[in-house]
Amino acid sequence: MPCAFHLAMGLPPHPMGARPFCPYPTLAIPIRAPSRNTHLGTAYLPRRTATNVANFPIHHLPGLSQPQAQALADLGLTTTEHLRRQGQSLAQRQALAKTLAVPERYVAKWVILADLARIPAVGCTHNGLLLHAGVISVAQLAETAAPTLYTRIQRLHVKTMQR
Questions:
Q1: pLDDT by residue (tens digit) across 48-92?
Q2: pLDDT tens-digit profile of 94-103?
Q3: Distance between alpha carbon 144 and the CA centroid of its chain, in Å?
Q4: Long-range contacts, stretch 108-115, CB < 8 angstroms, 24+ apart
Q5: Predicted structure pTM score
Q6: What angle, rounded to 10 degrees, do the helices at 123-132 and 104-117 form?
Q7: What is the DSSP letter of 61?
């Protein structure tokens, strides 16, 4: 039987039942085996769905001033999920920008940050970093290879340190 780590990652069982390289060989938590797998090279990865979506108060978004957060709250946009839903289309973002009397690019940036913040591991802590590294959507983040993302973040760090 594969260990819980390999079940969670959707990996096939260890060869010959041995677990020499597993970082969590004694992890004893009940994990349901993935119901639908796709073949990617030699590893089988489970199809993941977004069941846990993070939602933060609007004032936690980076780059949003207190008066801007208050103006959004006055419009009923008190959480990142509210902002994300109200800014899904270009027409909605333009209307929101006109109502707030701010440039449309500000609203677009806030919507992108709210979209990235819905990933629990990203939240309002790392969404600004991802945006500055060139990631503008959850789909793009999912398709970006880890080494590519690492290189982008490293370059961003170097540029920031040179300022």
A1: 444 578 889 999 999 899 999 999 999 999 999 999 999 999 999
A2: 999 999 999 9
A3: 12
A4: 109/63, 110/61, 110/63, 110/64, 110/83, 111/83, 111/84, 111/87, 112/136, 112/137, 113/61, 113/62, 113/63, 113/80, 114/61, 114/80, 114/81, 114/83, 114/84, 114/87, 115/84
A5: 0.67
A6: 130
A7: S
